[in-house]
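Troubleshooting: if your tokenizer reports a length mismatch, compare your output against this known-good record of 509 residues.
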Amino acid sequence: MRTTGGATGARRGARPARVAAATATALVLGLLTGTGSQADEDSPTSADLAYACRFPDPTGAPSTTVDARVEVTTRLPRSAVPGRPVDAGTVEVTAHLPRAATSALFPDARVVTGSATLGVDVRQNKEQARADWSLRAAGTEIPAQGTELVLRYAGKVPTITVNSSGRVRLLAAEARLVLQPDAGPPVSLVCSPAPGREPRVADLAVPEDTRPASPRGEPSGPAAREKAREDDVTLSPREAAPAAPWPDECADMPTGELDTSVSAPPPPYHFNPIPLDGVPLCAYAVGISTVRKQNGSMLINDPAGKPALMRVRGVVRSDLGDWAEEPGAEGFNQIWSLAEIHLPDARASFLNFGYLPVTASVTFETGKVTILTGQPHMNDPTTAFARIVFQQSLRLHDVVVNGTPLDVGPSCRTAKSFRVLLNGDMNSKENPYVNVFSGGLLTGKVTIPAFTGCGTAGENLDGLFTAAISGPDNELRMNQAPTCVTGDFPSGCPPVVPELPRLKPATTP
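Known-good structure output:
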């Protein structure tokens, strides 16, 4: 038996988690679109399964096991033809979790979203293959009353192809649920089928194939089955998808020094900084940068292209303290993280000086990123803040002016690096930035220095680009997605690409 397209067979390889994660990313992003035997969308089949879920303690390690109920709905046909892929349609997974247990994980949340990966064992005769069904959940409001939190996940999954006759059974295996509250970091739950009852999702009959040979002379019936004996069960995505950069890149934490100049509490205050090893995280951050002089914008880490992944060493330092020596004085806290990102080039087009069309590619050279969140006054939540700071320089190349290439040379760049300081609002109702785990909207304005090294053959174009671009009040708006937390108990993985932020904040009349 063989599996393809990210499914793992009965004899798994050395890196099953990474293969499964790649398949999950492809499914979540909707890259797998289908051909083959389409199931009857009007005839769903549901299975009501008992699960036991391991809930984490505050450190993230599983500590409590609670009973849960998981409903799995597929739209598989009742029978299949050997050699033809079968489509399960839109698969729905509904998880019924104890409200009391989930509320304890995020007591301040009002809405929870997330993703689910359900392992499914496909068995026929003596053959077996493992599929990982990855699904997404829309926002679910946490009920004020009742005993359950009901999360509904849905999505398309790989097709199933069997090349022999005989009954096919689909049995549910481990389920991983990622809960993303609107306040606080994501939480990962690992759930296993409860013992004592077969976790059957669906049955599929595959009768003996009696079709005649195909018009092209390809074998069918017994001959086709003999030819495909080594591929009795195949789980095939509808389209090949690139491997997701997880967990390899996410596990590689950056090193370097924090920029402590953004520390919030002014003196006098008393605390002892606590250095920590940090935890491996990663996330996508995408945004829009506005060049004030040109009244135009360019996309940063364009989500429609190949966005770069930000690697994070989360929580490398903790500052806890108070404002005075006496016991019981008002305290404050700060949490520091270190990140690194290598942004891809951006392509920008402007009307230079209001009438001359200019297009150029911009290369970003970005230093280490310091991420700081905290609350200077523990008794006043409105003082909570988020600050992200790094140094950056720009290089221009592949410049086209009014349709004609302009050779600016290989070293047309800002004369020095400039400081980028972005702020997040923890108290924003629309897009809060609570911490590095949950992400959110970051905004700020930068001053772009003068340009140098522009031009070739003795031609000096420094003044042209300095006059057109350099100056203050260039707005930068970035959306950071929730982080993927790697390790033995991953959560929020694989990392997702967020939407671009609005160019300007929403206003109310």
